[in-house]
Give the backbone structure.
Amino acid sequence: MRAPRVIAIQFDGLRADALTEESTPNLLAAAERGTWFQNHRSTFPTSTRVCVSSLATGVYPQEHGLPGNSLFSRELGETITTGRHENLVNWQRAMGGRLLLRDTFFERLGGGVIISAASSGSAWLWNAGRAAHLIHPVAAYPDEWRDEIEKAGEIPPAGEPDLDRCAWALDLALDYVIPELAPPVLVVHLSEPDSTQHHQGAAGAVHRQALVGVDRLFGAFRERFQAERDDSEQTNLLLFSDHGVVATAGMIDLEAELADLPGRGESWHVAHSEGAALFYAESEDTLIELAAFLRTKGWAGPLFSKEGEGAEGALPGTMSLGLAGCGGARAPDLLMGFQWGDGFLEGENREGALPGWGYSSVNNKGSGGTHGSCSPYELRNFLIGAGPAFEAGSRVDAPTGNIDLAPTILSLMGKETSGLDGEALTKMPRARGEERLYRVESKDFAQTLSRTEADGRFYLNFARLEKA
Ligand SMILES: [Zn+2]
């Protein structure tokens, strides 16, 4: 059996500036042996399932159609969280069509294997077109596969840090998936350091344990893979995160905050989790009222609405959803990223802490860290490519992002990559592009969005709301 041509390992929530010799020596050693893309960008909302959908399809949310970690389904008439795969199955059934609007690279390749230690919803989205085999502690595709997985070894319970589950995923790859199934492409989604960051923020001893621990697990995986496979040098390793993280400045109970605005659940709906909130309403007056109300709150950040004139959205003073890649058929009518800031919070645990803070929805796994909004700290994730297709010791400053993973894998497998928002990273040199600032001003506010544009592609740097 041959080794996979591509092994892609997702280190959930690992910020680019968390890669250090002290904490992540094994990932840095891989960067040394391969190519380190140092200007890598996430997708907005910087929520795991939105990012996974972009990683799997190579397009922005406006093309793949998964607008948030939580969303309001008009078909079901209710708000759903996409964290549970059963909810995605129900939503898809109610829509009577595709889960994601675009093909995943597994569909284009006609197969592959995904092992996920993260939420069942994100695992399901990696396999949105059900072209791959999926292994997850509570979800499997095909379903009969669950017995097969259990035969291969006991699944440890989730923990903090969640290193046993991460070890289970990597061991399963070496013990069973690679030797028995020999998939040409294997994706392994590790829950750390994100899982710990939600409770602890990106600081302190437990966070360090998670970060150091997941790096060590990767180091051991790579060593064993090389020792056991004569053909390991033929494999391209793609090592990446989906988004970053910021320290939580406050947990906002949006239902309570919005209690005085009449019509919730009737004339308007809200779906919120972590750093983003999605609003839905038929009436423009209602949306204007919502936007005006949000702007009275210190925790509210940039607002986006459907296509208007230029950078401005249809609702006065907001930005166009399309500018951030989040328009499209399934977009909310109004999208808010929670407010964020630079530096450190007062009284914050600064032991090994990374700068950057933001407000969070109460719908978050913990109160230590959050992501989902559009700060540079959440948008800066990492990518390293190592193997025969990647130049050793190379550093790439040109902009790259989540949207480039799928075309890269397709290109490594000799497939066509046209029609995607991203571009294969095997095509070098890449255009460095230019940073472009967009600005929308209204009476008491100014909203700025920065993106780097290169060869018709764009990568979001940040979006900021400032009060006059
Ligand atoms: Zn994530």
Summary: The chain has 14 helices and 25 strands. The two ends are 64 Å apart (CA to CA).
